Every structure is written in structure tokens, then in C-alpha cells.
Structure prediction request, 446 residues.
Amino acid sequence: MKLRRLFAEKPEKRAKKHRKRAKKLEKKKEYEAAASEYLEAADIFESVSDIPEMVYCLTQGGSLLQISGKYEDAISVYENLLEKEKHFLYDYEDDAPKIILKIAYCYLGLKKLKESEKSFNEAAKLFLKHQNIIKASKCMLMNSYLHLVDGQIEKSKKIVKKVEKQKGREKLPLLQLIKQIFFILKSRKKEKLSEVREHLPEEISKEEEDFFEYLIMQTEYIISTEVNLEVEEKTLRKGDIFSPTIKISTIKPLLLEEIDFNTDTTKLNLFEKTSLEKIPEGESSFKFDFRAKQRGEARIGPIKITCISENDIKFLLSTNEQTIKILSGYPEITSETIFSEPIFEGDDLSLVIQLKNNSSELAQNIIVNIDLPPQIRLTKGTPNKTIFELLPNQATQISFPLQITQSMEEEGEFAEADLKISFQNLENETKELFSRITVPLSRTPP
Prediction:
């Protein structure tokens, strides 16, 4: 008989029983069980097109899951609620920013900061659309806190400046709180952190409370850790390898998660990364190797170092910035001499000098000078020849027309000519090469 009565029971009545059980469980603080009853009721109310009751039960179910820390399930319920309201055209415009705000806090509880930021931003836009300046400003401020946790202080400050221009800012205790944290980060006054804890807003959610505690602990680690970038050589040549040093002083051991070198990659090439994984307590340092690859001024840093504390607080350290000057390297010029061997005194002789730039550097203002011995004379031109430039890996040749003026007195006798080649790099620095050319003399004519 009871079974028959159950099947004959109207859906509305069953839904109301689920809702009633949910409220009793909620009073007992059995939130997960209560959420389950609310969601069961919501499904039945939807089947009978009682949309207001469906919306109420979904809202309550999501809220109780959120209170229980079941953030993933709560997000699923809230997203379902948004879709239902949009589909049934039920108060979507009014409810959407409030629901999206709840989703933002769930992501905050999950420490999914990027997703939380996106939801706070979306909620802020909708609140502004409805002229709810205070709630929009609070969403914006929560985003400024998220940027702060992510190490983006300047981005955080820009948002704060926008909020400061809004009406009703005096009703936002979070505004003064974040400005106080900015001051602590700048002044490194650790004792001021206790004041931040004391002045947390009274009416804050569990997610906000956990988040602010995380932020305060993160700030404490940042101001208790000093990091500095040192570069010994400020002037380098293209191709040089150099090793900047990062010095760290910390009160507790840290894990090194990631390093963003934030360096001018057009002029510097990271040659070797550090293998460091742990940063010990006290003072330590580590080096990393760069190769200078392009002439000009190059920036190193600020290097961003992501660390994790022993109690899983992730925070970002930022070094100072250094600038180095990279000079052009020296070209590598090689020469080879080729000449036709004379037979008799008075014969003409052609001396050819082949030049090649075997480097990646431009050689310019190349001057070739030949100093001849008395037995040989230049028949045309001057002993100096100039080449305007020689590109990397380019080859060229020049020739000197000569004549033997004196035959050898003994078999195998030869004369020596001095060859001097000077050239400049892009810094107009001059380099000289010297070599000696052996020229065999001719036989006496028959």
C-alpha cells in the first residue's frame, strides 16, 4: 500500500519533501547531504516547470557544496544554474554577476588563480553594467590581489588606481589593505604584517580568509628573502661567454621551481642553465652562462625566480636589472701569396695576394702594404692598396706588378718582402697582421 502511494505521489510533493529534508540537514550543518537533497529537488522542480523553485534549490545546493569545500562540484552546479536561467529567461541579467562571483570564489578556494581572475573580471563588468559600483570595485580589487600573489605588482597597482577613482571607495576596506601590503613590500617592514591580519574585514568568506592568509605568508617570505644580480664584466665582445651571479639570502630553505631570465635574447644567448633545485637557508649564489651574440647594449633581468616554501607557499622573487655593452669581435683575415717565378733579370713578375674573411664579423678599411727589397721594384701603382670592406666569409684578391732588377749571384738565392695587412672592426679598432714573402731571384741571362 505504501509502495503504491509513493508511485502515486505528485512530483511537486516529492520535490518539497527533498527540500524540507535539505533544510533540516542544513540546520544540523550536514552540508553535503543537504546539498544532495536540494539538487534532487531542483531536478524535480525543473520537470514540472517550477523555475523559481528550481533556481532556489540549485543556488542553495551550490552554496552548501561551496561551504563544504567541494569547489569543483559547486562550480558545476553554478554553471548549470547559469545555463538554466539563460534558457528559461529567468532573472539571468540580475543573477548572472552574483553567480559568476560565486564561481570566482570557488576557483579561489581551489587556488586556480587564472580562472578566478577571469571570473572576477567577468563579474565586475556585469556589476558595472547594472551600476553596482561597490560590488564591481570589490571584484576589481580581488583581481588586484590575484595579480599581487602572481608577482605582478605594477598590474595590481593599476587596478587599485582605477578603483580609487570610483564612488563609494571609502566603503571598501580591501582597498586600504592592499595599499598597506604595497607599503610593506616596498619598505620590507615585516612587523607591519601583524597589523594587516588585525585589520582584515570582518565579513569575509572562507575562501577570502584562506586567500588573505596565503597572501600574508607569501608577503612575509618575499620581504624575508633578498636576491641580487651581479655582473662582473660590463663590456664584452661578440662571442664571449660570461657568467652573471644571482645571490640569495633567505631565512628558510626554499625549492626553486622556475627561472624566467627575462633577457634580451636578440643580443644574448643562454648558454647553460642552472641545475639548482634547492635554495639553502642563509646566503647562497649560483651562476649561469650567456654568450654575447650581437653588438650593442644588452639587458639582463629583472630575473624572475619562482620559489616554493616548505609549507607550499609559492612566491616570486625579482632581481635587479643589469646592462652590458657588447662590442664587435675582431674579423679573422687570412692571406695567401701567389706569384709567377721569374727566369731572367728584367722579367716581369706578378704578385697576387688572396684575402679571406673567415669570421662572422665585418672587416673594413683594409690596407695592404708591401715593402720590397732592392732586387725587386714595383712597375705600376703604389705599394699600398685599400679595400673598403670584406664581408663575413667573403674572399678577394689584389695584385702588384713587379720586376726583378738584380739576378742572383749564387744558386738558390732569394729576396724577402715584408707584407703588412691592417683592418678595422665595427668599433673602428685596428688590428695588424705581418708576414714575410720569399721571392726567388732570376738567373743571369745567357
